């Protein structure tokens, strides 16, 4: 039956994780107390090395990575608990986000022993910031059309071209990038390879921060001009970059970050409206709670599939698509239910500042990690109609 | 998924896919209760999924019942299978034996004014398949204590009516319906409302999946402008949207059944009420998109009686409202949210 592929079988977290959750929650309550509320609405965009180091010191980064390389050898569900608690609290997770979510696992899977021993301990300590070099000025959603080239020479790999929208490239320690290593191959998806770049040690790489619409600097255009990478910078198999990136995306698209970006707005909204809300308002808020519960169950179900080694690409695209609709809808709903105007940081009550921030950030939710157009294309393919 | 659950689901799907097609549904709408189909369902034992083994049941849990109830929705089954599963479960909670035959599940909470020493009075209470019921089963709130009440349907007067899906929803009245049994009960008096909401959410998930399958197949077969509909990106996106919407209902409905097994609805703490309310709220909201998109993909043919999409969509419109719509369940969850406060709502969600 067609709809069998679309089923999200319930995956309940074992009660043994309750203690971990309580511990993380208490830690976050203490650590986030000093931050202004609006700061806690940037969540996994907020770059805060000090916070990441504290999380690392608790053993809550690189949790699933093998102990042999300095990881903690814990289960995917233990990590899930830490991640969703951080997101629900709006903790500033931007410094370690990429490293913990995908670069660490990628290095463990494909890196050399030297790379693992050198880098994984830094990731688990919360002392390595990673960025991802994917999009290019002429390759956004159409990722397979990227052109930045890595040429194999006697000195290693020589890279020329430009990456764009690379979050924190101007501050990161490492980049995982996708380059074209074979321009002659017939399929656009072939001839791509992934590289691990030590940004602190490589010449010829120039990040230029691009101001976003709020005036903040986080993403970049990154120029590669005869940047020479050592032989072992190639990570995984030459020519298999597309497949490797696709594997990473299943993890990237189904996590709790896909529906919790505006969760702090919902909590502020509940408090600012208060208990004397009309039944109609109650119902609208309740509907959002139903969505959170639904998306959380779907996301957990995929975590269960990933844990069993299944390929949940279709299901992950559904979570990304639905989660994005949900979180992008929250700022509009808030304004329907509450008269308080959005304000800039430092003005008005916390709710107003958080709203003002998230109204402006919301357009990015359906751009990062794949657009709804791309997600729906993947879903349609899964349904067999494309 | 465990073996018994898979076997049950497979046998239900086999029976329904062989026995419940467009012609059968048409005949049942014209002529009423299908004795033959009911006895086949009865023989399969699916209504006894939650009964004890000693009572001839499968000794299952609600998570085992989920695929069955979902399949009832998928095939637009015009029989009170979910209602009977519930009656059997209620009886087991009270440790009582049910009379033989078809139960009429009383959706409303009965009170001391309805329940007399040996008889029950009902005044136009809408009961699914009331006309066919051999006995009625409901829960009364007697001065704050819940009691399970089983009465004979003999002597009840029936005013026949149906919901939009043409399933009987009869107004049942009677001055002194004979009470066959009453049992003290450790569940909330409105338990049938909660279970009913959960069942309808599962049926909506099933019917939604069937709508999606019809729409996907139709889009692949139907050609316009020299290519199949499924080649058009706009149609692909409708189907993707339909799939996501259906999957969201399926996920939370399945979660509600599991939550009921895990935490029940009687301890008054953070129990399965949260998931059940979320499931019916999401399911009722989703009916809008499920029906609109599946009809849109089908064009005019989907609007005909002959094609049969309507067997699903008319039931979806009915189930959306039955046992409370998105407004009621949203309001319940809103109350939970405001009681928890911004600081506590995440804890409520994670349980």
Explain what the structure shows:
The complex is a heterodimer of chains A (386) and B (351). The longest helix of chain A is centred in the last third of the chain and has 29 residues, at 279-307. The mean pLDDT of chain A is 94. In chain A, a hairpin with a 2-residue loop joins strand 2 (149-153) and strand 3 (156-164). Chain A has a four-stranded mixed sheet. A four-stranded antiparallel sheet of chain A has the order 2-3-7-6, with no helix packed on it. With 386 residues, chain A is of the alpha+beta class. In chain A, helix 1 (18-32) packs parallel to helix 3 (76-89), helix 6 crosses helix 9 and helix 9 (313-337) crosses helix 11 (372-382). Chain A contains eleven helices and eight strands. Chain B is of the alpha+beta class and 351 residues long. In chain B, 54% of the residues lie in helices and 15% in strands. Chain B has ten helices and nine strands. In chain B, strands 1, 2, 3, 4, 5, 6 and 7 form a seven-stranded mixed sheet that branches. In chain B, a hairpin with a 2-residue loop joins strand 4 (135-142) and strand 5. Chain B is globular. In chain B, 53% of the residues are buried. The mean pLDDT of chain B is 96. Chains A and B meet through helix 3, helix 7, helix 8, helix 9 and helix 11 of A and helix 6, helix 7, helix 8 and helix 10 of B.
